[in-house]
Amino acid sequence: MTAILEQIKEISLPSPSKIALVIIDGLGGLPHPETQKTELETAQTPNLNSLAKKGICGLVVPVSPGITPGSAPAHLALFGYDPFRFTIGRGTLEALGIDFPLQEGDVAARGNFCTIDKKGVILDRRAGRISTEKCLELCQQLSQIKIDKVRLWVSPVKEHRFVVVFRGDNLRPELSDSDPQQVGRKPKQVAALSLKAKQTAILTNEFIAKAKAILMNSYPANMVLLRGFSQLPHFPTMNEVYKLKPAAIVTYPMYRGLAKLVGMEVVDSGDSIEEEFKALEQHYAAHDFFFLHVKQADAAGEDGDFLRKVQVIEEVDAALPRLLDLQPEVIVVTGDHSTPALLKAHSWHPVPFLLYSQWCRSDDVAEFSESACAKGSLGRFPALEVMPLALANALKLTKFGA
Amino acid sequence: MTAILEQIKEISLPSPSKIALVIIDGLGGLPHPETQKTELETAQTPNLNSLAKKGICGLVVPVSPGITPGSAPAHLALFGYDPFRFTIGRGTLEALGIDFPLQEGDVAARGNFCTIDKKGVILDRRAGRISTEKCLELCQQLSQIKIDKVRLWVSPVKEHRFVVVFRGDNLRPELSDSDPQQVGRKPKQVAALSLKAKQTAILTNEFIAKAKAILMNSYPANMVLLRGFSQLPHFPTMNEVYKLKPAAIVTYPMYRGLAKLVGMEVVDSGDSIEEEFKALEQHYAAHDFFFLHVKQADAAGEDGDFLRKVQVIEEVDAALPRLLDLQPEVIVVTGDHSTPALLKAHSWHPVPFLLYSQWCRSDDVAEFSESACAKGSLGRFPALEVMPLALANALKLTKFGA
């Protein structure tokens, strides 16, 4: 555990007060060249504006200035877990991303179908990006592979991507990649990076050899590349650290996996933003912390669809009264990172943040937007500070020192 | 390497985009008592103001709040190298400052000519601040000293200050100072601080003894004091860490040395500000990162010459269109630290900062000045964040985590 989490653990108290953390994925944006307004600044958000006016605002730096984060490290930071310390292997992350019920001790790896020539040299690391249907078909074939004393699953992700999971006794993830990450070379043997991982290296190489034989006539997808061997990490739970009973209201697999990793209970959340807010109402009594995740803003940003992102934000604003009516002691609305439609990708830009509570010491920001939050009295601050602030405003932290 | 540099190294990519980092040495100032305006606020800077208006602004904290830095640590921080971790010994710094071609393995020390009495007790640690001409003459005498298996150079710096460099096999810098840093005491024997440094301690003491003999009749400069024994440090280069091809446009020796230490190519830069901007034009095609250093503002500040510092800043502003015409993707203008003319010295005050890029998410600062930048949306931030921000804005960093 990091020093700050240890400190918080020492001073956190269970209490009846409730915290709602609404994460609009990829919330931050860049100004449209015609209007000079970002997606959030373009959206009509009367409810968010009024909450910003009553609350305290700022700009959150997701993981470190200038760094563009993936959604996993960005969310961990918002939950108070330093993403440079609490890392998740690539294989595990892919398994979480397809909702694979990974168990403790399983070893997961990210796989690519790839193309090799007759000598075994890699011609295309992505096998011409085969269709997801083709990927599913090949994964079903590879799932038939038998290896002594091990159960294994090969599950499609998208196009050429898949996940392979090995389950057995004493499996270890300290394994080198078989993927050399460049064409013109042969796939590498998986090597054990610790003595204990020797047996696991042998069986993963056996898997790769059998996969190669099965795929022999499946050009262009005639070989596999594995990387990011990893196991479910052990993170302290939000209950241990914060004494919370957290619920996650999420609609995308990876976020369900992340929420479980920090000990949240993932509740049935429906598919739409409105259904998520309904789920919040339904589960409100049984929990004291709610992570409500809105994926659609990020998806619109990645598609470069400025207006759709505006609409998603307006949809959240329209649903907000359901949350307000529940009167949680603390409401936080922010994003995990920026996804400006103009960049069609995640970016490094800090993210608008608002916190409302009876005790927040409001500033004079009267609008929820990048430019207004830049003038908020929280300034530009690291995502790791969000949970301590939320807990403090919920009066869930006792004094540090005498 | 520090953790953040390791991270940046993992995610940095070579790309055609270009970054110009203009450092006006000692840029920050304090308000003149008559006008209540700082040097920068007094200067007419239409080009910097318009760049600030298009860009994003803030105040840079050079190395740590309240700390007044030397130019070496302040520049290292701007280059992304934590000056508390990447340290340069005093002897090495002095050698860089006089453009001495220090080689790997050389041991350099900072020297003072001093005055001792007949019993060898120090009366004046600076020998009455002898003239630089006298210093040169004495250094030439000391350069005649012969020590077995070692080459040595004694080079004047200014007044009583000199540098001595020893070159030979297996020389080590783990040596205590001979300078007791106070009068009324005798110079100390140089002691080895590691087993391997024993031989080097012996030969430096031999040098000191021979110097004493030579200087016997050179009162008041009748003895030497040595301190800061050190070797050229090994820093990761900006190419290794950032994948950049950096060029340094500098006119002062120490900055050339610093630039080389982080792997910049030091190009022929002329003597004046205008010539430096011409050099930028000439070398623009061959590099993707440009450190352009303007020393004159700091020199004016140290002289307490408020108006000359104003003029230097105006000269930079007048030359700026040459840089703007090149249209680099990212332009940063800031200083390494403040040198208020009113203090006639470096100071701890944070330094005005502006960054312009297509993706900077501009704030509403419309003027490049201490007071305007204090309201910029970057807030008050550490110099170590400058490079990650510049690289991000040049789209040279990929995503951290999935």
Present the secondary structure layout.
The structure is a homodimer of 402-residue chains.
Chain A: H1 3-11, E1 19-24, H2 39-42, H3 46-54, E2 56-61, H4 71-78, H5 90-97, E3 107-116, E4 122-124, H6 132-142, E5 151-158, E6 161-167, H7 198-215, E7 223-230, H8 238-242, E8 246-249, H9 253-261, E9 265-266, H10 273-283, E10 289-294, H11 296-302, H12 306-326, E11 330-334, E12 351-357, H13 370-373, E13 380-382, H14 386-393
Parallel strand pairs in A: 1-10, 1-11, 2-13, 8-9, 8-10
Antiparallel strand pairs in A: 2-12, 3-4, 3-6, 3-7, 5-6, 11-12
Task: Provide structural commentary.
2 copies of one chain form a homodimer. The first copy, chain A, has helices spanning 3-11, 39-42, 46-54, 71-78, 90-97, 132-142, 198-215, 238-242, 253-261, 273-283, 296-302, 306-326, 370-373, 386-393; strands spanning 19-24, 56-61, 107-116, 122-124, 151-158, 161-167, 223-230, 246-249, 265-266, 289-294, 330-334, 351-357, 380-382. By secondary structure, chain A is an alpha/beta fold. Chain A has 2 domains: 3-85 and 235-393, 3-Layer(aba) Sandwich (Alkaline Phosphatase, subunit A); 92-230, Alpha-Beta Plaits. An 8-stranded mixed beta sheet of chain A has the order 9-8-10-1-11-12-2-13, sandwiched between helices. The mean pLDDT of chain A is 96. Chain A binds chain B through residues 30-31, 38, 59, 63-74, 83-84, 87-88, 90, 93-94, 97, 340, 342-343, 345-349, 370-371, 374-375, 379-380, and chain B through 3-4, 7, 11, 359, 361-364, 375, 377-379, 381, 385, 387-392, 397-402.
